[in-house]
Amino acid sequence: MKELLRQVKQYKKDSILAPLYSALEVVMEVIIPFVMAMLIDEGVEKNNMNNILLYGGIMIVLAMVSLFAGMMAGKYAASASTGFACNVREAMYRNIQRFSFSNIDKFSTAGLVTRMTTDVTNVQNAYQMVIRIAVRAPLMLISSMVMCFFVNVNMSLIFLGAIVFLAIVLLIIMLRAMKIFNVAFTKYDDLNASVQENISGIRVVKTYVREDYENEKFKKASGNLYKMFKKAESTLAFNNPVMMLVIYACIMAICWFGAKFIVGGTLKVGELTSLFSYVMGSLMSLMMLSMIFVMLTMSVASIRRISEVLKEEPDLKQPENPITEIKNGDIDFEGVHFRYHKTSEDEVLTNINLHIKSGETIGIIGGTGCGKTSLVNLISRLYDVQEGAVKIGGTDVKDYDMKLLRDKVSVVLQKNVLFSGTILDNLRWGNKDATEEECIEACKSACADEFIERLPDKYNTVIERGGSNVSGGQKQRLCIARALLKKPAVLILDDSTSAVDT
Length: 502
Fold this sequence. Notes:
Layout: H1 2-5, H2 12-44, H3 49-98, H4 101-106, H5 109-131, H6 133-151, H7 153-185, H8 187-200, H9 202-207, H10 211-236, H11 239-264, H12 269-311, E1 331-338, E2 349-356, H13 372-379, E3 387-392, E4 395-396, H14 402-408, E5 409-412, E6 421-422, H15 423-427, H16 436-445, H17 449-453, E7 462-463, H18 472-484, E8 490-493
Parallel strand pairs: 5-8
Antiparallel strand pairs: 1-2, 1-3, 3-4, 6-7
Helix pairs in contact: 2-3, 2-6, 2-12, 3-5, 5-8, 5-12, 6-7, 6-12, 7-10, 7-11, 7-12, 8-10, 11-12, 16-18
């Protein structure tokens, strides 16, 4: 929760002004029925035009002030909530960029997308309700109850009984709905995972004619979400009928007893009219409070999921006094033991001892899943070893500045990724200051210049997101060229020519 509250930042002023204006709005709305009662009793009943004009004018002024306060409260609440949500998204995104590979392994991609979209929207809506309605509703409820007792104590007892009854019923409904929402919310991840998997692998789906299967899988995930929310909303649907039942019962009781009190001379017509206004305002406030509880219930799960991302600390720590120079490209594995999960008993690499001299070209061969990629990932410190040491230039990789290490150890990963932008933009991921001539030279070394020269815009050709408008082999050549632009001390090609024709 603390991580989220820190994101209010520059919107503290708006977050304070919104409830203050809401409080002013409530005060005006509570005074209006009282003035209306005086208008009826002192003006209409006594045929006193001066009092009618006086109290009527006061009501107009109060209504205008209430309107202004309501508009300002809405404006500041919207500004604070949207700004808060923007800060939360940015904070999450920044922290995700700091994650190591092992941190990323803890969260599914679909889960991170849900947290940054649906979860943040839920928290944004809840925050807006808290600084606006959560202040307005209780204040209106308490103020209306006080004014009811001020107008007529006996009639207020009827109103108090209705409030207690309605509060108990709404609490039961809310508690039941909260349990369902907690379960339903987890179904979003399943739905997002289904969509993401299908879209990212749409070519495979088409190739194997699996559209019907994918449709059924999505239908199942969507159906589960539908069932849970239908159940929750069906429970909440009782709110309105119960509310109307209590309101009409209150009106009937107030009319019945009010008529008797008026005949007995202990209640005035204007006071009875004001009681109706206070009863309606109080019951509606109670209804709003119940909806706030639902929203807060939904947001609690979202807050927890967002906080997990914000509190996640990168597993790889920058050394206190990092070394900023790599002497040479010698690589040494000394008694290395590695597993992806610290609590796992199965090791991916066990007692690895390996020595590679600078300038040597080494090929690591082995069966699928034997740990080749895991081995090379340790060189650039994408993961940390559990035992032993990985050294470059005679120094443990944990002692190097991480940015320096990643610059000097260039890795072309198995999965080749290109980003939306021109070919030059993608190449300059390797070196943002690289000239066009340097980029062309790197492409020649990677044998990528041949197909680039055949393109209409050559090096200014726009690559679509994910590199969808280039072939697998072309993508791999561009990734190799990008890695060469770093001019690294160590170059690692992790099965990066599998799609290149030879």
